[in-house]
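Posting this for the archive.
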Amino acid sequence: MFEKRIGNYLLPPGIDIFERGWLSANNIFLFGNDDVSLVDTGYCAHQQMTVDLVSNALKQHGLKTLNKVVNTHLHSDHCGGNAALSTEFHCEIWIPEAEAIAVQGWNQNLLSFQQLGQECPRFAHHDLLVPGKEINLGPYRWQILAAPGHDNHSIMLYQEQYQILISADALWEEGFGVVFPELWGEGGFEEVAQTLELIEGLSVALVIPGHGKPFTDVQKSIETAKSRLDYLSSDVERNARHGAKVLLKYKLLEWRSQEISRVNQWIAGTPALESIRQQMNLGMEEFQGWLVQALVKSNAAMIEQDRLVNLD
């Protein structure tokens, strides 16, 4: 078996990391004699790729099947492959405790998919991730930690022996995920600060984030995140503008290219963007024009023959 190093950190056996990108969150494949688990499952547009990645990993390691899926939180880029994996492997699905009622009744008012203008095939859950408790994932025990801020129901997973933190979108190498609760008035900046403080109090040698490559300079990333938090929280409209651009860019990653008229229709029909439009005190046409041009000005997209085209 080949050694896997991330910087100077030697990854312990029984852990594979599928680094995906921005449309689909990273997946962590954990395997041992008694359990094979996957943390997070990507976006539904990539669900067949997720199934293929798991199938190939099972074959590579001589394993029979996937026992369970664990979702750090229920944004579509983290749970969009749940239904496909459940169908393929008949695996259990574990979700954060606070999402139980929403998933059980598939309540669109409580789930984030419709609000953020995204999609997720319906799935059923089998068990709950309760902060303060532990869970077996592959050959190791992991602590379940509450990680509100980006999503106030989110959890992280911490392996104390090897000092590994699966941070989801609470901490990236260069920041953290959009503070979505702030966009609809629930508050999230203070929660981000508390989660960063929690991470800072742990002994962490390796962070596996929801997006981007795993990293080992944890303190540098925490300082970057704190600086980012100060920047966003000092101006509520600044955070709103950032959130709007991220939502449209994410949708454009799925579309790759879309007619401007369809883009405007999607903007008008996405509740989170309507909340942002009201915060910015803009009319709908003005807001649509601003948002499209904001992506173009940041070189995240271009307009070509009445279509908005993604730029990587």
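DSSP finds eleven helices and 16 strands in the chain. Residues 236-255 form the longest helix (20 residues).
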